[in-house]
From TrEMBL:
InterPro entries: AAA+_ATPase, ABC_carbohydrate_import_ATPase, ABC_transporter-like_ATP-bd, ABC_transporter-like_CS, P-loop_NTPase
Example of a GO MF term: ATP binding
Source species: Rhodococcus globerulus
Name of the protein this chain belongs to: Sugar ABC transporter ATP-binding protein
Keyword GTP-binding set for record: no
Keyword terms, alphabetized: ATP-binding, Nucleotide-binding, Repeat, Transport
RNA-binding among keywords: no
Superkingdom per UniProt: Bacteria
Gene3D superfamilies membership: P-loop containing nucleotide triphosphate hydrolases
Amino acid sequence: MTSAEFTPDAALDLRHASKVFGGAKVLDDVNLQIHSGEIHAVVGQNGSGKSTLAKILSGFHQPEPGAEMQLFGHKYEFPISDEGRESMHFVHQDLGLVDSLNILDNIGLSHGYRTGRFGNVDWKHSRRRARDVLAGFDLDHLDMDAPISSLTASQQAIVAIARGLLGWKSETGTLVLDETTAALPHEEVEVLIKSVRKVVSRGAGVLYITHRLDEVFAFADRVSVLRDGRLVATRTTDSLTREELVALMVGDQVGEMRKPLPAREEIALSCRDLSGEGLRDIDFVVRKGEIVGVAGMLGSGRELIADAIVGASRRYSGTLEVEGRPVRASSPRQSMKDGFAFVPRDRLLRGIVPKLPVRENITLANLDDIKKNGHLRGKVEDAEVNDWIQAVGLRPPDPERQVISLSGGNQQKVLLARALRLRPAVLVLDEPTQGIDVGAKSAIYELLRETAARGTAIVLCTAEPEDMPDLCHRVIVMRGGTIVDELTESRLNRNDLIISCAS
Ligand SMILES: Nc1ncnc2c1ncn2[C@@H]1O[C@H](COP(=O)(O)OP(=O)(O)OP(=O)(O)O)[C@@H](O)[C@H]1O
Ligand SMILES: [Mg+2]
């Protein structure tokens, strides 16, 4: 191919990008053009190659020989030179923040600190710059010296994004966002997009990787679809329906949403007068076999409920009972003994053990079933793990794979398998389907319905209310730290839910 075939004014024009990992072709001759001034979504099932594509652009992975790239008409060879890299900005799926550092240092990390005449760091300038960029997200009140780990998941995402938006050397460039919004509630996605639109209006191109298809239609001009490492289509979003996009991503594998079976009479979880920081008088019960959704805008208290129930956060007053027994919610470990299983929202911080294989990540929470006389029974463990790998649809279905080398959505499936395997009385889920593609999502929902049908009570906290009406028996809505509404029967539909959350 000659460079004459490149699109000269494209912000990014990538040709023939392939990547092989251990003999498997993860990207297969991908051609992608991002126009200057456009938001270009890239979608695809878990493991279809989206993050690998982003990592090739960032220089983290080298593509196979034959790949070519132009940025605003300039041709770059792989590995990409520093100059080429400077015109691209990245926010990766795992955000790339350093936990032990504070906000200021995390922002300074990728853009360097300005130094004064004598080579000393100009802290005042660095501080002002960090504060200015955070102000765009209403986060300038944060203490710049606070460790990143003290921020909420969505605040961390915003710091990573703010960092990505800092330091554009020229007015043009390409911003690559890899599922940056996965941990963000809708309201914050709007704030993010406003800032992204500012750089777009100055001529930048944006590559926007997401699983949230509503975002694709709301924000993106065009969308490209990856399937098994191949780029199967690039379309304008105006010319597509959601169903057509899903079909391009997964073929016609998406099953019908089925309603859950009726819940039983017996109460599995009773939560009375739970009060404390950010929450007051939380009062609700969940019956055996019932799936109860917890919805609400950011700051409503919705994001605190799961941690409060399983004792992962500050102490709350009130009483909790599991199947009629009082429990203490003093720590996640204690809550597991009390019959809870928990899927936390921050899978990298509190969820997976990155360097351990899938097998151990699934079984580590409870080895009792597979232990006999103190020894692990290898074959029993293998068989069980393989069943779970099938059940959650892990790709690749390899129990010995280090979890960190799985795609983000597949890491999430490992966490779900671990929690479901405990066969808990109460399953508490905090943003359980973040990063999971539409096809896998319906399989996960089916698994939750089956789990409920066996008698488990499920509390599902999520910022994504779309699927709640089909999945849940009831949805409680929070505002100002307390429960303000409960949707059942005819009011349990998407419209009423959105109105109730927003009012
Ligand atoms: N370092 C690695 N070593 C081996 N295989 C890898 C590595 N990184 C990714 N893979 C494999 O490459 C494939 C594509 O992964 P990638 O992370 O690009 O998927 P993705 O489209 O971003 O998925 P998700 O939506 O789940 O984030 C997967 O099968 C993954 O397991
Ligand atoms: Mg990914």
